[in-house]
């Protein structure tokens, strides 16, 4: 990945930080975009754009364009930004469904649309989305989240078909990711079976690499050690 210019959304989160670190270690140039604030000083190889609301089309476009201008090109987009909620359908709030759709589908849509003109110039453009294994068959309380992640799956497939021969578009579908937040939420769970952020990062960065040039439209389950 040496010299490739990669944008990572949700770059200040638990998974985003690991993916960014791994990408930089492989020689990529990385622009991280996040809703959280950032004080990192930009260098030739690394920059962070904080305070960006990716559910807003104009803000997403401005951030992607700024990253592309900084590096002079854009070779990959890794859409990690998103959200999770656990809420039953019967006594839940319909606004939760709208919020999950905005955080998971619209963020990926807005950044992908903004990145397409840059990625098609790359000659090896890549988009990698984060779906969810739980969206293949939703459990109780997972309706809003699973429905939104199913939307990410369909976005991935549709965009892969639309951009075939120009940009590859794939998604990884993790089970439970081993993060501090998930450990706190599920203290009795067997975390030895969860997928670690570093393991997931390896799959994501494979899809962003030249080695994955023949892979597009794939929804790859990342199950951990089940």
In N-to-C order, the SSE pattern is EHEEHEHEHEHHE
Shape: globular
Broad structural category: alpha/beta
> Beta-strand percentage?
15-25%
Protein name: 3-oxoacyl-ACP reductase FabG
Keywords: Oxidoreductase
Family: Belongs to the short-chain dehydrogenases/reductases (SDR) family.
InterPro entries: NAD(P)-bd_dom_sf, Sc_DH/Rdtase_CS, SDR_fam
Outline the structure in words.
α4 links the parallel β5 (125-130) and β6 (167-174). A 7-stranded parallel beta sheet has the order 3-2-1-4-5-6-7, with helices on both faces. The protein has 6 helices and 7 strands; from the N terminus they run βαββαβαβαβααβ. It has helices at 14-25, 57-71, 94-122, 143-162, 180-185, 197-207; strands at residues 5-9, 29-33, 46-49, 76-79, 125-130, 167-174, 219-222. α1 (14-25) crosses α6 (197-207).
Short description:
It contains six helices and seven strands; from the N terminus they run βαββαβαβαβααβ. The chain has 226 residues and is an alpha/beta fold.
